Amino acid sequence: MITETKQQISEPEKKQIAKELRHYVETIAGGSANKASKILKGVSNSYISQIFNERWEVLSDEAWRNIQKQVSSNTEWQIVETRGYKYLNQLFTDARLYSNTYGIIGNTGYGKTQTTEQNNHENVFTIESNEYFTSRDFLEELLRLIGKSGHTGTLSSMMSEIIKTLRKLDAPLIIIDEADKLNDRVLYFIISIYNALKGKCGLIIMATPYLKKRIDDGVRKNKKGYQEIYSRIGRSFLEVPKPSRSDIAAICKANKVVDELTITEIYNKSEGDLRSVKRLVHATLKTQTA
Q1: Cβ proximity of 259 and 27 under 8 Å
Q2: Which of 12, 13, 18, 31 is the most exposed place for a label (fewest CB within 10 A)?
Q3: Parallel, antiparallel, or unpaired for β 124-128 and 173-177?
Q4: Could you tell me if 169 and 220 are in contact, meaning their C-beta atoms sit under 8 angstroms apart?
Q5: How does pLDDT run across 190-207, given as a tens digit for each residue?
Q6: What is the pLDDT of residues 43-94, one digit of tens each?
Q7: Strand 124-128's sheet: what is its strand order?
Q8: Looking at the domain 83-239, which fold is it?
Q9: Rg for the chain (alpha carbons), in Å?
């Protein structure tokens, strides 16, 4: 049996990690190794002292890798479970396990798409809507997601293949993101999918508040299909909460911005838009490393 072994940390790598750790202590922790040890996970004040004094032999390769992961300037963006993130996942789980249907709205930048991207449950299929989607485009995309991209034919045969495949799966869930971009004809197909899979598949229709206005207007004007859509989502839309200051502070700190005044500035400038938060955090870190 062959076991995989991790490559040892070389001396040049240790020098680079030590350099990045020192920079981290100076810029993120205000020059305090003790403060840095409280921010970094699994990194004691003693570890930092040993590295700064070049007593590197006392640290294991695992310890070095842990420090490198947290202080490297190339560290990936860290996702934080905000109130909106938790709320959406609760709804996704409920829809998936109990074949429920929900209409969800939230302003741009509230983390809707990011949350769907983090959802790695089996048999969850997310359609990223586009204005140019025809009925065939929509069905072809759904067929691709469920592993039936080779299927061609009439719209009716495509729909039949989708229904047949989804009925065989365990707790499937379809998430239609940015649904406000879809035209009426595609929305009618969503109704057909719901009707055919009621009790067999969860369905999430998610968009900006414009979708609610569009559906409300359609119901009031008695437009074809709108009353049925509104009924299928329980005659109400659920709203993703706006990211709070504590949400944004947690995101900042997870991504190495810990100064409270800077966090307040990011919170005020972002106006609750998490995409803006990410740009502002990156700008802050770039300034600190300049």
Answers
A1: no
A2: 12
A3: parallel
A4: no
A5: 888 889 998 999 999 999
A6: 888 889 889 888 888 888 888 888 887 777 555 788 888 999 999 999 999 9
A7: 124-128, 173-177, 202-207, 101-105, 238-239
A8: Rossmann fold (3.40.50)
A9: 24
